[in-house]
Amino acid sequence: MKNSSSQPRKSDLWFPLLLGLIGYGISLWHPFLWDDEVTVLGNTLIRDFGNLPVVFTSGYHAGGGDLTNLYRPLAVMSFMADDAIWGLTPFGFHLTNLIFHLLNVSLLYVILRRIFDSRFLVFGVTALFAAHPINSEVVNYVSHRPELLMGFFLLTGFHQYLVFRQEGSRFSFGLSLVFFIAALLSKEMGILLPFFLFLYEDRARPFDQAQGKRAVPLQEHKRLFRFVVPFLLISILYLILRATALN
Q1: pTM (2 d.p.)
Q2: Span 56-76, average pLDDT
């Protein structure tokens, strides 16, 4: 029997969240920095939700007059929402970044609890992610909102996939696909989700103690392909669109 004291607990999450809040809360009083002049201050598109068709057919910096091949419409939409609520007050934009960072910390914790039994591992990894200075640029810099959004949708999609695999919820599988698309529309790196799903499925395969390696029955291979192939098809479609209509 496993020691219940070593099992992850929901109450362990408050400390990583506190670390993230203490470590990055000071960003709320930061001004706009560097590229924020293009993505926020000089971005005419975020002033009116009527510009959404343009946002979904142009580059990330189009509203500020710069032509780039970065396609991140959901990030621009989030700037629209901030502008509608706060105007051009930096506090509101930084608050949104901080909230998404704390949401990502929570999602990481929930995902790790579903995969690992070690309370120390789950707590330690989550706390490290919450406070690590590697997140400084992403959280403190409004123009790096795409990374936060992509991380949020990727982690949410991964979590819903875990719910589907562990509880059999087809609705969660559908949600996972939707969140995968949202991750792609936030930043290009969202395309990594299928890779994470492959890693999870590989770990979930039964272990052959006699041979000292994971068993790979043919039926398991077929199931793995059937579950992940929709994500791969979406990835291929996304790459085709980015190379043609959204180039």
Answers
A1: 0.88
A2: 81
